[in-house]
Amino acid sequence: MADTDQSLTLESAREQFLSTIQTPRTAETYRWALVALQRFLTETNYAEYGAEQGSTKGDGAPFPIAHLQHDILEEFYIWLSGHYKSQQTVRTYLSAMQRFLVWLDAKDLLDRDFQLGKAQSRLKAAQGRKRSAPYKHRRVDPELPLVVTYYDKLPLPQGDDPQGQLARLKILRARAIVHTLYASGGRVSEVASLTREMVLDGRVDEVHLVGKGGQARVILLTPDAMRAIRAYIDARNDRYEGLFISHGRGHGQPLGRGTLWTVVKEAARALGLHDSTSPHSFRHFRATQLLNEGMPLESVQAYLGHQDISTTRKVYAHTRTAVLRDQLDTYGRSPSEALDDLERRRERKRK
């Protein structure tokens, strides 16, 4: 499993790509298109980009190219259509984005699971239909908890040789990461920022931190998550402050969000889960699960750290299908039962 976030960033790739454009005017147009792309990534919180800064100015943390997903052209097109009145601008910027992806694909710089043809097909489908809903509700693989049990079941290498110790630390770290993501429903940026002091080396179940938009909030840990954290810390035998740290290059440095993505992605690939599975999937899964079990919307809002309950309602209220089904089964009447009810009412009237 990868140990540090070494993926190529959008900023670096953009400059390399633009240097290949021979016509200055075309290069300038493409530059503006990719600036718009960065705005899109931040404003839509695409793949959790912009989670830490809460900015809409496109000046956030570097975005790893490897985090681009098959919906990138589709979602960028929808965003452009809502932000630019000129259809010519939309078409030009979209064309620049497609050429950028072709260049990335030719240079083998995209994630190995990324299929350019699939991204282009999704764009064509989006262009062929009218989209009125401003928010796209993403489905989460229902087998997502398998990511947690996948790492729990991995055997720990034995022996005191350096290679065995390193492999053991990485598995224990991965267990602690996925248990923390599942328990807390936290943003990947929040989980990556945790320190040993904040969790008291796995001895507390409430963690106070500063979340999105600089808002103080609390994330909760389950006993399973606390045990996983303690096991990882006990095996480390160091005094580094970060909770999740590198054990390879940059030893002791806090992990970037990219490495947390890699931990989840590697398990998802091994398990055959949907290719959209990511750290953020745990957040959606847990929120949906809690709502379906009957947790009030206000409590889910607090759990997720949403400042405005309208955000929680927009993203998750439609997922309360289990509650709706239970209520329908409880209060709904079959056709024959409805006719029996009608006959009883008629009988009462005749009496």
Summarize the structure.
This protein is mainly α. The protein is 57% helix and 3% strand.
Describe this structure in words.
The protein has three domains: 10-127, Orthogonal Bundle (DNA polymerase, domain 1), CATH 1.10.150; 146-281, Intergrase catalytic core (hpI Integrase, Chain A, Orthogonal Bundle); 321-350, no CATH class. The protein has a two-stranded antiparallel ribbon. With 351 residues, the protein is mainly α. The protein is globular, with a radius of gyration of 24 Å. It has helices spanning 10-18, 24-43, 72-83, 87-106, 116-127, 146-153, 162-184, 188-192, 196-199, 223-236, 257-271, 279-292, 297-304, 309-316, 321-331, 335-350; strands at 206-210, 216-220. The N and C termini lie far apart (78 Å). It contains 16 helices and two strands. Residues 1-6, 50-59 and 130-134 have low confidence and may be disordered. Helix 6 runs antiparallel to helix 7 (162-184), helix 6 crosses helix 11 (257-271) and helix 7 (162-184) runs antiparallel to helix 10.
CATH fold-type name of the largest domain: hpI Integrase, Chain A
Number of strands: 2
Structural class: mainly alpha
Query: What fraction of the residues are assigned to beta strands by DSSP?
Result: under 5%
- Report Rg: 24 Å
Number of domains: 3
CATH structural architecture of the largest domain: Orthogonal Bundle
Order of helices and strands: HHHHHHHHHEEHHHHHHH
Tell me about the largest β-sheet.
Answer: 2 strands, antiparallel
Which residues form runs of ≥5 with pLDDT under 50? Answer: 1-6, 50-59, 130-134
Cα end-to-end separation = 78 Å
What is the count of DSSP helices, taking H or I runs of 4+ residues? 16
State the name of the first-level CATH class of the largest domain: Mainly Alpha
Mean pLDDT: 85
Taken from the alpha-carbon principal axes, the silhouette is globular
Major sheet: arrangement of strands: 1-2
Query: What's the CATH superfamily of the largest domain, by name?
Result: Intergrase catalytic core
